[in-house]
Specification:
Structural class: alpha/beta
CATH superfamily of the largest domain: Alkaline Phosphatase, subunit A
Distance between the termini: 69 Å
CATH class of the largest domain: Alpha Beta
Shape: globular
CATH topology of the largest domain: Alkaline Phosphatase, subunit A
Bound molecules: 2-deoxy-6-O-sulfo-2-(sulfoamino)-alpha-D-glucopyranose, calcium ion
Radius of gyration: 25 Å
Strand content: 5-15%
Number of helices: 17
Strand order of the largest sheet: 7-6-5-4-8-1-9-10-2-11
Largest sheet: 10 strands, mixed
Number of strands: 16
């Protein structure tokens, strides 16, 4: 018989005494009971990572560019990290840091080119040893057979948007369709049909999108079509006082390729750009039906672009809008996938006991400083979105203000799972910070970037950030220090390193930097002329 809410209330009152007696018994036997409960209720972990997803393009962060209802759900039902950061703003190094909990100069994966040593410890290995079922699906960008996973089905290198090639447990396979939906389907198939349902699980569900070349899924071709985006206030930055920023090759106006990046692959072949062929290869991966839908949408835009013959500022703004349209469309498919995963957890009674994290391998420029891409220690690429839910422990609507870095994921997951954190791990568990149990947290974070010479021409640098200030040292073929007051200058337009009124801040920040380098064991050894030789000697 179903009782009314009122009847329930009455019953609750009359049962108060019984509950009191029961509670006393439970309290006395709780020490014994706790151990069993912990063992049987270890949380499942779904770790979602997308590639190059700017926090500016997640509506929970409030930038108003787009609406991502499913990713937002994670923060609404759990926590939004206001200050999530990476340790090295580029794909493979970021993933290595995330898996090992160690900085690049310790785990050895300093750039996208250097080898990754899968033989070292990673948190998936620890969870696997502790009885977890583990799976890795999608983009990992680390060569070699992944270690620590009972099941892996990963893209090769950067992966492709259409007809993507995967390696399933070491065996190559091409899937028809669109990469984001294929990755979601593989993840759901593992959850539904492949995992052992009597064990806790760890699923790394890692999307390629919204990585360059931002090829959308057909159903989103028209999304934002009517919308004109206003670029950020520093879109026409002149880089005064910042020579490293001036020397990059990631400017939307100068470096964004209208065919490769912006899809102006005209059938007549009159739009000739350095990377036209590269995009032709991407286009060729689509089947007949996909090509027909693609052409129906893009051909009129190409014709219009040719007719307008835009130049200068007008061309820059056109490129910015074309970029935003496609970038945000690819984000929408990622958001759909997150929704499917969350729905699966709910429908299968897994919601309460599953930790879900959404993050990106780094942040991304959506026109700030006139840029796309990442790599710099400036805010938009240093930062990364982090949203997390775990109904058992995290209050809905939590906002985390402490500076959390990607090396913190590994120790945090191990902490939640009750598994020992290896002492080599450099990150820290943010479990108590998120639950509110403790407000004690670090007050400075450290950053390194090495991939120079390299694509996009971002100079090698390292630096320290506190809540208010940031000190960066660019080196190798340049010698330049930069200091920013993030409170007064959040867009980092004014380098105050030589401003006498910042002399004390500068001295303090140098001390902080040295403290960080000592704490994490960094030195100038890696700053040598030849990185690969350094790595050979190290291994
Ligand atoms: C590719 C891209 C670059 C990008 C790197 C690294 N070029 O090389 O624009 O910076 O990846 O990205 S592309 O012509 O291949 O698209 S990362 O996210 O994998 O680090
Ligand atoms: Ca990336």
């Amino acid at each position: 018989m179903v009782k009314t809410r009122f009847e329930n209330k009455v019953m609750m009152k009359s049962n108060m005494t019984a509950i009191f007696i029961l509670a006393t018994i439970v309290l006395f036997s709780s020490c014994k009971a706790k151990k069993t409960v912990e063992k049987t209720s270890r949380p499942n972990i779904v770790f979602i990572m997308s590639d190059d997803h700017a926090y500016q393009a997640i509506s929970a962060y409030g930038h108003g560019l787009n609406i991502t209802p499913n990713i937002d759900r994670i923060a609404n039902e759990g926590a939004l990290f206001k200050k999530g950061f990476v340790t090295n703003s580029i794909c493979a190094p970021s993933r290595a840091a995330m898996l090992t909990g160690k900085h690049s100069f310790v785990n050895g994966k300093v750039d996208n080119v250097s080898p990754f040593d899968w033989n070292q410890d990673n948190f998936a290995k620890s969870l696997q040893k502790a009885g977890y079922q583990t799976a890795l699906v999608g983009k990992i960008h680390l060569d070699g057979l992944p270690q620590g996973f009972d099941y892996s089905n990963v893209l090769i290198g950067q992966g492709e948007y259409y007809s993507p090639e995967f390696i399933e447990n070491g065996v190559k396979k091409t899937y028809p369709g669109y990469v984001t939906t294929v990755t979601t389907d593989i993840a759901l198939d593992w959850l539904n049909n492949k995992r052992a349902k009597d064990k806790p699980f760890l699923l790394l569900y890692h999307q390629k999108a919204p990585h360059r070349t931002w090829m959308p899924e057909e159903k989103y071709f028209k999304l934002f079509e009517e919308k004109t985006f206003t670029p950020p206030a520093n879109f026409f930055d002149d880089y005064e006082g910042r020579p490293a920023a001036a020397g990059q090759e990631m400017s939307i106006f100068k470096d964004m390729d209208v065919v490769y990046d912006l899809k102006m692959l005209d059938k007549e072949g009159t739009i000739k750009t350095p990377h036209r062929n590269g995009f032709q290869n991407q286009y060729n991966r689509m089947d007949k039906k996909q090509k027909a839908a693609w052409d129906a949408y893009y051909d009129p835009i190409i014709a219009d672009f040719k007719a307008k013959n835009l130049q200068g500022k007008e061309l820059a703004l056109w490129k910015f809008n074309r970029y935003m349209h496609d970038y945000l469309r690819t984000v929408q498919s990622v958001d759909d996938g997150v929704g499917e995963l969350l729905d699966y957890l709910k429908a299968n009674g897994l919601e309460e006991n599953t930790i879900v994290v959404y993050t990106s391998d780094q942040g991304f420029y959506l026109g700030e400083h006139g840029w796309f891409d990442k790599r710099f220690m400036y805010e938009e690429s240093f930062r990364t979105p982090i949203l997390m839910k775990y109904p058992k422990e995290i209050k809905a609507g939590t906002v985390v203000d402490g500076m959390v870095q990607n090396i913190d994921f590994a120790p945090s997951f191990l902490d939640y799972a009750g598994v020992e954190i290896p002492k080599e791990v450099q990150g820290e568990s943010f479990r108590k910070l998120v639950s509110g149990e403790s407000s004690e947290w670090r007050d400075a974070i450290y950053y390194t970037y090495y991939e120079f010479p390299g694509e996009h021409h971002v100079k090698r640098h390292y630096g320290v950030r506190t809540d208010r200030y940031k000190l960066i040292h660019f080196y190798y073929d340049i010698e330049k220090w930069e200091l920013y007051d993030l409170e007064k200058d959040p867009s980092e337009m004014s380098n105050v390193y030589d401003d006498p009124s910042y002399a004390k801040v500068k001295a303090d920040m140098h001390k902080q930097l040295e403290a960080m380098r000592t704490k994490y064991g960094d030195s100038d050894a890696l700053n040598s002329q030849n990185l690969s030789n350094y790595l050979k000697a190290k291994n």
